[in-house]
Amino acid sequence: QGDGNGGEDTASVTVTVNPVVISDPKIATGVLSQVATADWTTVALSQSYASLVVVATPVHIPGDVPVVTRIGNVTSNSFDVRVQRVDGSAAALTGVGVHYVAVEAGVYTPAEHGIRMEAVKFTSTVTDRRGSWFGEQRSYANSYSSPVVLGQVMSYNQAAHSVFWSRGSSRTVPPDANQLRVGKHIGEDPNHVRVSETIGYIVIESGSGTVNGLSYSASVGADIVRGTDNGVFTYSVSGLANATSAV
């Protein structure tokens, strides 16, 4: 358990992952503009995936209430998405923007696919919160120099919210070449009870390039972001002339 509100973990769950090297590197991105809290939006994908991993990020505009994305009903070629308020209010929201990336689960290598990346799904049994920062230790299928980790709670087994998070050797540092912990977090929610949920995450080597016709840039920025009511924080993007979506 954690040793106080900002404490480090003293126990952990370790899971070894062995995703398969895939022959068909499917990946797609998209932008939604009318996601709501009350209803699900179904996103139809142009390709079918043997095992879909999807990560979705809400667009936050200064003054907006804080929300997280919820994903459900994931199929081979579609998923449902909605946003959920995390400020304690049940008032409905509409017209929220969401950016997403959809990836075929498996291992991507520079030799086979022109990118060093892996996409993984697993069942998360650990719930982190303020004062408890365990995560679930994972192993990499690839070797990385500077990994970027993106993730999503990909199931809706419980109405109470949870959101993906990741860490390295401690809660204050991001994943690195040797340490990866991921999981679901509930922040300061006084209701600590959560059931198991499906976590999907993507690990990609920092840098820019093209995979399956899609140009990308991946990086880890400086530690400057705070709460949604603390203003705007700017990160530079390199390697892309025009960015159309971001997660």
The SS-based structural class is mainly beta
* Cα gyration radius (Å): 17 Å
Q: Which sheet architecture does the biggest sheet show?
A: 5 strands, mixed
Task: State the helicity in percent bands.
Answer: under 10%
Distance separating the two termini: 30 Å
Low-confidence stretches: 1-6, 9-17
The multimeric state of the shown protein is single chain
* Averaged pLDDT: 90
> What's the overall geometry?
globular
Describe this structure in words.
By secondary structure, this protein is mainly β. It is 2% helix and 40% strand. The protein contains one helix and 17 strands. The chain has one helix at residues 110-113, and strands at residues 13-15, 27-35, 41-44, 52-58, 67-72, 78-85, 96-104, 106-108, 117-124, 127-128, 136-138, 147-153, 163-167, 181-185, 197-205, 207-211, 214-218. The strands form five sheets. Strands 1, 10, 11, 13 and 14 form a five-stranded mixed β-sheet that branches. The longest helix has 4 residues, at 110-113. Residues 1-6 and 9-17 have low confidence and may be disordered.
How is this fold's topology laid out?
Elements: E1 13-15, E2 27-35, E3 41-44, E4 52-58, E5 67-72, E6 78-85, E7 96-104, E8 106-108, H1 110-113, E9 117-124, E10 127-128, E11 136-138, E12 147-153, E13 163-167, E14 181-185, E15 197-205, E16 207-211, E17 214-218
